[in-house]
User: Fold these one by one.
Assistant:
Number 1:
Amino acid sequence: MPPSSQTPVTYSELVACHECDTVHRIPALAPGGTARCSCCGAMLVRNPKGGLERPIALNLAALVLLLAANVFPFLTLEISGRDQSTTIVGASWALYEAGMAPLALVVLITTLIGPALLVISSLYVLLGVRSALPLPMLREMLAWISHLRPWGMLDVFMLGVLVSSVKLAGMADMVMGPALYAFGALLLVSAAAMSALEPHILWQRLGLPGNRPRAR
Amino acid sequence: MRARDLGLASCHTCGLLMRLPAAGHAHCPRCGATVHMRVPNSIGTTWALLSAAMIMYLPANLLPVMATTWLGNTQADTIMSGVVYLLHHDWPLAVIVFVASVLVPLLKMIALLYLLISVQRHSPLRKAQRARLYRVTELVGRWSMVDVFVVSLMAALVQVGALATIEPGGGALAFAAVVILTMLAAMSFDARLIWDQHGERYGLVEPTR
């Protein structure tokens, strides 16, 4: 046992598989390399190509596309001379107006708030680590990124767009708005941004806090 | 060699490996999260979330997800009748939607049920396959959300006064609840329990050394 029970002894050169608990020494990975668990095959650590610069660039691009995808009309429906446009927020708003506030919130979080927070917090952490500035909440934000990831559902939303347009094709003419193209690009860029950012690398770069007091 | 056998635990948030003090839990010095040997009460939480999802699965499939009013006629659609409609217009898409919104939630719940029961019975069988099953389960669940997005998009687009309107139905709410509850259930399930030997008590902290 360590002399102080407050701060446990840590082993930053080792990693335990998060699925089967087998301990491995963290290997030195070439850029683009992936280490898998020798026991169950789960991914242990990755070393994405492009260092910190590539995810920064991709997340900046995603931020611009996210703005474009939300500002312009997404889809326009023409029924006997009358136009009805919607944006991504509009899809959520329709649910709210129909008295389904909880569902509206779910749609808003998975299509806008989640992806937006993911991009912004990724940029914050990446720039903070790269510049080595002691930005506040850096560790909290990095922890947050891993929890946020499953709740961004841009790809699922895109499939929903496809299904809706097939269903509505018999009823009216659909016009694709500029936001739909921005959204398609956002889909690809944000997927690339996510695979370019490996939290493990950032945690290792951050290391243990120098003399940060940690209560209890 | 497994971390538990060495008396080590890894932080669930940042992955840092550490020796747990006698209290059985610690604050991760790197990210500040609370670290336990295993996710506390993983089995109980997963059971609770899974049961809730299974209950919600009934209204999700029985209640209409949306009501279409077209030239004065109103037609209510459930998840399944939406799939049947697509089948007549674009069958590859119908297959995708059927898999995503009918098959995936059902198989996901069955998979979690099987994982829970096999872990509780300390089954030594097919650990690698069960681990793979868990990995797939965690990955595909979010795609079931597609029908909720379809309903919200169509409700937003088809609001042309008396001519045509689409209103979301209660089924959509129940369906979103199933997706979210199964996602939370998969997250609360600690896959390392699959590999724990009989006699190691899950959720508890004393390292066997």
Number 2:
Amino acid sequence: MILAVERLTVKRGGRVVIGELALDVAAGEVVGIVGKNGCGKSTLLMAIAGVLEPSDGRVVVTGASVWGASGERRRARKDIGYVPELADPPGFLLASELWALCAAARGAPAPTPDLIERLGLDELRELQLDRMSLGQRRRTCLAAALLGPPQLLVLDEPDNGLDARRLEALETLLRDHAREGRGALVATHDAALLDRLSARIVAL
Amino acid sequence: MWMRVWARAVVAPAARRAGAVWEGCAIVAAVIFGRTAMHPRDLTGLAVGSPGVGAVLAATWVLLMLPSARFLVRGDAATYLRALPGPTWTPRLAAAAALVALQLPWLVLWLAGAGARGLAVIAATTIVLVALARIRPRRPRPRRAAWKTATRALAGVYARALGRRASDALVRGAGLAVLAGLTAGLFVRNNALPPRESAAIGAAVVAVVLAPGVAGLVMALLDAHRASAWLAATLGISETARRAVLAAVVASIYAIGAAIASAAAALVVEPAALVYLAPAAISAAAGSSLFATRALVRVEHADPRTTALRVVIGVIAVPAASIVALGLLGPSGVLALAAAGALAFATAKGPA
């Protein structure tokens, strides 16, 4: 199992957003999270990615707890590649610097020329993130998330801001990622995208 | 109407940029001028009589005012307003008048110190300022980032935040550091302080004058610290490591500021005094910088409306702590400062 979420409860401002949720992602599987606006999709992904601490429950990635003791936590997070909904890393960084930061933290090599070409990032590598469109920023963050590559990809509305060509590239990347025995968790409103990815759907 | 728009869009932001310079100058004036201390004519006389001191003083002033001058001469708002079909000479005259008015401390110094002859110095520095402000430096090709560890990468991220988001504050901070060194040096020299005393008092003076220059830099660091929080969390960079890197970068800013100040002080003090002053100023600055880092850690998740005020209070805590420790304990107060700073930093808790 790549991801196992057990009895996860997340509160925001005293309100229970996610209550005792169980979820798993097997090797080679893409799981789609669907639900109406405000139902807690982003909150769930943030708790799984290690950004928002849950009030109860466990998130285990490749056998290590995302919210466990420091060594275990570090091991778990090295296996996660996360792209948030707004794809908003520090805007003053160049794309190449974001990749260098992620590569250093994961002990991974820089993105391969093939990955850069597939995501259409060759022209953007020396561009500052706050001068990019949402779609360009999202692709840059996706390249950063894929460094390693991680066992689990956690993508929050990855199709937002992407044109048809880039959406196709994203689908191919996700399919390849799953085919190599890794997992992906994708929150989206686009049922057709999940259908094309043959994703198992979890409704919140 | 035109002038009102010009004043609000161009002059007011330029004046805000000059605010830290005025604060620094007010502190310097309080330290080196007074009934029993120097008269402005002593300083202008020193600047005219000693070309080295004069050149450093003028260059420092140009450095301090350059961010404001750049905003008046070729800032986005000024460039846009000049492109509109409106009067040609009025904005130029308004910019020139604003540039002279924003140099009020320099005007007062030279008019009080050298009378009408001071006007020539003011005119010369203003011309140099305008010439430098008109230059558009070519953006340097970014150095390729190749970080080996996560903490080095994070330090590199903070350094880039300073270079790309606070370049004006860096220039102003460097200028104020030179001014801090000259002030400390003049204070030591005018009062004929023995070397050991010059260390404690000089380091305290440097800490006080550096404060307005550092505020803009730590605000840029706070923005970078906040913006990189989710990225660090998801990459498995611990909160302790994030804070340690932030503390190291803040300490470096303070230490570099104090080193620049020490180099400037070397122009006016004897080498025997400098041997004590420089290490005391640098180590006091680095140790007490932990108070400023504590403020940054505590406001990371705070209400944005109170952030700036709380950061400024943290920045002011640095010279306050330096004055208390160095005043009570002399040069050995540096160790007490480092210990108190470490304690303040270690006990800092950001609100959940």
